[in-house]
Amino acid sequence: MTALTLSTAGAATLRADALVVGVAKNTGSKAGDLVVAPGAEAVDKAFDGKLATVLETLGASGAEGEVTKLPAPSGLKVPVVIAVGLGPVPGKDDAYDTEALRRAAGSAARALAGSKKAGFALPTESAEDAEAIAEGALLGAYAFTAYQGGENKVAPKGAKAGGPKLPLAEVALLGTKPRDKAFKAAAERALAVAEEINRARDLINTPPNDLYPESFAAVATAAGKEHGIKVQVLDEKALVKGGFGGLLGVGQGSAHGPRLVRLAYTHPKAEKTLALVGKGITYDSGGISLKPAGHNETMKCDMSGAAAVFAAVVAASRLGLKVNVTGWLALAENMPSGNATRPGDVLRMYSGKTVEVLNTDAEGRLVLADALTRASEEKPDAIVDVATLTGAMVLALGNRTFGVMANDDAFRTSIHEIAEEVGEASWPMPLPADLRKGMDSPTADIANMGERMGGGLVAGLFLQEFVGEGIAWAHLDIAGPAFHEGAPYGYTPKGGTGSAVRTLVKLAERTAAGDLG
Questions:
Q1: How confident is the model at residue 150 (pLDDT cuts 50, 70, 90)?
Q2: What are phi and psi of 9, to 5 degrees?
Q3: Cβ-based burial of 434 (10 A; exposed 0-12, middle 13-18, buried ≥19)
Q4: Has this prediction a pTM greater than 0.85?
Q5: Is 361 annotated as a binding residue?
Q6: b (16+ CB within 10 A) / e for 232-255
Q7: Is 202 annotated as a binding residue?
Q8: 363 in a known ligand binding site
Q9: What torsion, rounded to 10 degrees, do the Cα atoms 240, 242, 243, 248 define?
Q10: Which residues bind Mn(2+) 1 (predicted)?
C-alpha cells in the first residue's frame, strides 16, 4: 500500500522522484489561457515565471485529469515536474472543487507508477482539500498485480518481476500543516478509507476460483481479529438449521456452499446502530437461467456490494466512529448443476415468506432478502443494502452512477446528498407501488421477477418486502460503477472500483453525529 506523509518541505526543497502541480483553464476575459494553480508558486518561479507558457507549448490545456510531464529546472530538487489539469479556474470567492482535486491527484499518481516518492503541491486551502488530494492519490496509485509476474525473473527498478510497474510508493502532501489536528485527522481518515477501498478492490478483482463464499468469510474473520470486530459465520449446516432458504437456494448448485457473515463493530458511547447488507455472489453464471456468451467474463464482480460493506465496517472501526455498525455479507456462488435451483421452484425464505423463482439469474435479491430479514431482527436505526443488482439500473443511469431507493424519502435524499458530497455519482429512484403487482405469484407469496420495464425498481420493491416494519431502509444498486471495464481515469482503475464505500463511511459518520436523515 502507498504510504502517506504530511511534508514540511517546500516545493523547491523537496527531494523526491517527481513533483505534482496543478494547472487550470482560464474562463474569464483570457479564456483559453493556462493558469498555474496555487501551491505551484515555487515551481513557477523555478521556470522563471513561464511554467504556463512552457506547458501550453507542450499542448497542455488544463482539462480535468490531463497529465503533462516535463523535466524540472535546476532550481528544484526533483528531476520531473508533473502538471495535472484541474478544469476551469474557480470564481473569485470559490475554491477548487474537492472532487476535481481528488481526480487530479489520482491521475498524477497513476502516471507515477514505478516511482518511490512524489510530492503533491496542489491547491490546499483547508484540511478537506488535503484529505481529497490524499484520498485521490492513494486510490489512483492502486494496482492489482497479485497474479502477474514470475517469481524467478529479475525485476527492473520499480517493477514487479515479469509484470507491470509497482504503484507509487509514497505520497508526500505539500502545503499542509503537519502539526495541525485537523490536517492530521484528514490524513488519517484518507489513509483508512483509501486502504479499505483498495482492500475491496482486491476482493472484487480476485478470480472466483480463489474467492468463493468460504474464502471470503475467512478474509472477513482475519480482518475482524485485526481490527477488533466480532465476526460470526453461518455455514451451510447453520443456514439449513436457521431456515435461510434464499441463500441456500442460490448456493445449492455450487460445490462451494453459501455463507452468511455478520460483522459487528461497536463503540461504548454509541447511541445509534447502522446495519449494512451486501450482495456477495462470488461468481454469477446465471444458474439454470444461464447468462449468454459475453456476459460471464466479469461476473466475479457480483460480490462488490459485500466487498463495500466489509470495507466500510473495517473503516468505521479504524476511525473509531461513535456508532454501532453491523455488516451482513450474503455470500453464495450461483452455478448450474444437477443440484441447482430450477425456474419454477419455490423457496421458503428466512422470513417465512415463499418465493417462486422464475429466473435463477435474479439471485441477488434472494440472498439479500434473507440477510435483510436477519438484520431487521436486531432493530437497527437504519439498514442500507448495497448490490450489483440489475442490468436495468445500468440502462437507466449508465456505468458511473448508482441508483438510490428507500422506504423513506428523507433518508433517500440524505444518502444521495452524502454520495454527491464524497464524490460518488448517484441518483434517487422511486419505488412505484403499481409495479408490485407484477410479482404476484399463483403458487407462492411473491415471485422473484416482475415487469421487465423498470426492472431495477421492481428489484427494489422485492427487497422492501423483507425489511422489518418501522426501520428506515435504503437500497443502492451499484451495478454500473462497481466494475470499470474501460481505460482508467482519475482515481478510478480498470476492474473493481470499491463503489459505495465512501458513501457508507460518511453515512456512518453522520449517524454517529446524530444526523441520520
A1: low
A2: -75, 150
A3: exposed
A4: yes
A5: yes
A6: ebbebeebeeeebbbbbbbbbbbe
A7: no
A8: yes
A9: -50
A10: 284, 361, 363
